[in-house]
From TrEMBL:
Biased composition (Basic and acidic residues): 352-361
Descriptive protein name: NCF1 factor
Compositionally biased spans, kind Basic residues: 310-319
Region (Disordered): 309-328, 351-374
Cellular location(s): Cytoplasm
Keyword GTP-binding on entry: no
GO molecular function, one term: phosphatidylinositol binding
Keyword hit for Cell inner membrane: no
Organism: Fregata magnificens
Assigned keywords, A-Z: Cytoplasm, Phosphoprotein, Repeat, SH3 domain
Gene Ontology, cellular component aspect: cytoplasm; NADPH oxidase complex
Length: 389
């Protein structure tokens, strides 16, 4: 009999455990080539460390040398605080990852690293527990979801971006970059800070320092909306450049263009300029701890402040000048005023017409003609006939 290998890995669901501290583990049914089936439990952090080691073992297949030759599937980095929602939402991604993993070339899918990771461990059969603590809670996937993993939640497809210039991190949560580094973007925040991973490193990176591999990222930016969306300033900011605006906390403004680097073009009365999006909150939207945490960070760098940017897309970017923003914004405001004036004028005309109709004297009924003498003699009573005789 040959070497043992895995035929199939099926994600059954996840389990919430309370010992030694509250955490989540995924349940996998592993089917081996000897037709045996074993149930194993793995934390997502374990799976991610396994994934990183696999990429290091096969640098060509992981795309470290040439991204076009990558066949090892992507896997997003763990969140800083994994809760039940993220554990649940990640199931579709894991199911797709396991399916792709087993179907890789045999030198990868049947290597000792893969086989040993999914072998049954002692804590798989006898998980550590404490009788004084609550029993684990099990959350199984529905049967129809198991047949089609993409129905659970869409797989997370990570985009690969290139660093256009060197970036030195300013906090522990950030990640330093060198021009030309290839990073996988795990999360894109409207604040202009993107969470990325590079080999065994991960952290927040300013979006302005990144460009996609296959072309300019203009397609991801929304077109200007001169009608404007109403936002409330949550944190004051003093303009550092001529095209930026200085605002105070509590000011109400209109956002007319949302840009990927986290610096949005806003309008205050008839003045337009850039402002950090992370310091804004949509009118009527509730505040959250995540948003509060972001507002405590510094604003990301703007694209225009990056020096010696080695970007192949720099010349092809469609840049709108502040004069264009101001001109189009004033045109929209004027057209909106004209519409209001026309509407008001029409309303005034209707009111005047109604008043004129009310003040117009009402027509009096016509006086009927007096009946002839013959008609009275033929049709009226005796007393009436006597009056004309």
């Amino acid at each position: 009999m040959g070497d043992i290998f895995i035929r199939h890995i099926e994600l059954l669901g996840y389990e919430k455990r309370f010992f030694p501290s509250q955490h989540y583990v995924y349940m996998f049914l592993v089917k081996w080539n000897d037709l045996s089936e074993k149930l194993v439990y793995r934390r997502f952090t374990e799976i991610y460390e396994f994934h990183k080691a696999l990429k290091e073992m096969f640098p060509i297949e992981s795309g470290d040398i040439n991204m076009e030759k990558r066949i090892i599937p992507h896997l997003p980095a763990p969140k800083w605080f994994d809760g039940q929602r993220s554990t649940q939402n990640r199931q579709g991604t894991l199911a797709e990852y396991c399916y792709a993993l087993v179907n890789l070339p045999h030198k990868i899918s049947r290597c000792l690293h893969v086989v040993n990771f999914f072998k049954v461990r002692p804590d798989d059969t006898n998980p550590v527990a404490d009788s004084q603590i609550k029993k684990p809670e099990v959350f199984l996937l529905p049967n129809d979801a198991k047949k089609n993993p993409t129905d659970i939640t869409g797989p997370i497809v990570l985009q690969t971006y290139r660093a256009i210039a060197d970036y030195e991190k300013s906090s522990r949560s950030e990640m330093a970059l060198k021009a030309g580094d290839m990073v996988d973007v795990v999360e894109k925040s409207e604040s202009g800070w993107w969470f990325c991973q590079l080999k065994n490193k991960r952290g927040w990176v300013p979006a302005a320092y990144l460009e996609p591999m296959d072309g300019p990222d203009e397609s991801e930016e929304q077109e200007p909306n001169y009608a404007g969306e109403q936002y409330i300033v949550q944190k004051s900011y003093t303009a550092m450049e001529d095209d930026e605006l200085t605002l105070k906390e509590g000011d109400t403004i209109e956002v007319i263009h949302k840009l990927l680097d986290g610096w949005w073009v806003i309008r205050k009365n008839e003045t337009t300029g850039y402002y950090p999006s992370m310091y804004l909150q949509k009118a009527g939207e509730e505040n959250t701890s995540v948003k509060s945490e972001l507002r405590n960070r510094s604003a990301p760098p703007r694209r225009s402040t990056i020096r010696n940017a080695k970007s192949i897309h720099k010349q092809s970017r469609k840049k709108i000048s502040q004069d264009t923003y101001r001109r189009n914004s004033k045109k929209y405001i004027q057209s909106r005023r004209n519409m209001k004036e026309n509407f008001q004028n029409k309303a005034n005309v209707i009111i005047e017409k109604n008043e004129q109709e009310e003040n117009k004297p009402k027509a009096q009924p016509a006086v009927p003609p007096r009946p002839s003498k013959d008609l009275i003699l033929n049709r009226c009573t005796e007393s009436t006939r006597r009056k004309i005789l």
